[in-house]
Amino acid sequence: MQTSSCLPFSVLRRSRWAAMAAFATNGALPASLLARYAEVKESLGLSPALFGVLVVGLGLGGALVVHLPGVVSRRLGVARSAGLGTAWIGACLVLAAAGVTFGSPWVVLLGLILAGAGDAVVDVAQNSQGIRVQEHYGRSLLNSMHAGWSIGAAVGGAVGTGAALLGVPLLTHMAAWAIVCVLAMTLCARRFLPEPKPLEEAGDHPDETPQSAAAPGAGRMILILAPLALVALAGISVEDIGNNWSAVLLAGERDVAAASAGVGLTVLLAAQFVGRLLGDRVVDALGSRLTLLISLAGVVLGLGGAAWAPNAALTLIGLAAAGLGCAVTVPIAFARADAIPGLADHSGVTWISWVMRTVALCLSPAIGAMTEAGSLPLALTAVTLIAVLALILQLDLVTRLAPPLRRLRPQRTTAQRTRPARR
Fold first, then answer.
1. Are residues 49 and 145 in the same domain?
2. Burial of 145 (0-12, 13-18, 19+ CB in 10 A)
3. pLDDT tens per residue across span 66-106
4. In the chain, pLDDT over 70 holds for what percent of residues?
5. What span, in angstroms and rounded, lies between the C-alpha atoms of 184 and 22?
6. CA distance 364 to 243
7. What residues make up the domain containing 221?
8. 307 vs 209, residue with greater confidence
9. What is the domain count for the chain?
10. Which of 88, 178, 219, 247 is most solvent-facing, going by the fewest CB within 10 Å?
């Protein structure tokens, strides 16, 4: 196999699978607790409203840290950030499980908020590593890594469900699972690509480093990053609708039995997983820009079709189209944000991640309010406008306002070009 990097292929391959396993670990750790949320609600005796406030803790913690994940990754490096961040998440989720055991909702909320903050750090670190591996390979890989996260979340959910069925105490289950995940992430992080040297240590050719590009001004940077944020938001809006509203749509608007209404989420997530598995090949074949346009169109048509479909079958087809369309939006947004010259390392990924987490906190309450004022189909149509706007912009602001982005295939020195590619 040919790559565009001077690193040995064995090193690249090991780093690629380590990054994918890191994504899977990050998905598996919190999902194991989420699978037992019904037990958490019952154990604490919470009303639906109070439980809704409690479970927002993970998202709130991620939103509160703002730019801290990028700072941590620059100071510690992505490998240490991923390893230590996962240990932090595990400890905080164990704290939340202890809060459930001892009947303290406040301890549970504190644990979830702190875990959410750690998850934001790990998210930026693992995506930054995935983007570096992708650049060294010279082809798209980040979508399949996000598919690894989906696999990990499914495994973590299955472990949590199995532990509940076997009657394993929540605290014991989460402590053991946290140890497993922390060890797994530690092993993965040891196989990450070596950290690039800071600019002052780069040698006699600082002009070859990405940071040497002129940094756009603040206003121009907002115009560059805003379309990318809309692309990412178009993707997570589909996930939010699938998680929180697909069953409500099928049961309330399509007369599907409540016990079977969860099929909407299953269909959407399955389509998203397939899209992530195939996404890298599509990006390599069509280019990220055309792939993104097709994906956003799929989100618009899928969500709009699901909102106004006359029956359950067409609604499921719409949800599948939306899931397939949203599969590559977040990875492409991260990769493009990371490639903007003039930004400090990891800043673009951090900013996009923060916007996603912050808006996600408000999305479901906004859909609920619009449903109360009108109807669920109208609310879903309003959310679809995010993807419509992202599609209209087509990232033109990035093309017109930004300096040329770093190429996916990194430039090599003359000496490197003379070496035969590793196969």
1. yes
2. buried
3. 888 889 998 999 999 999 999 999 999 999 999 999 999 99
4. 86
5. 8
6. 10
7. 215-405
8. 307
9. 2
10. 219
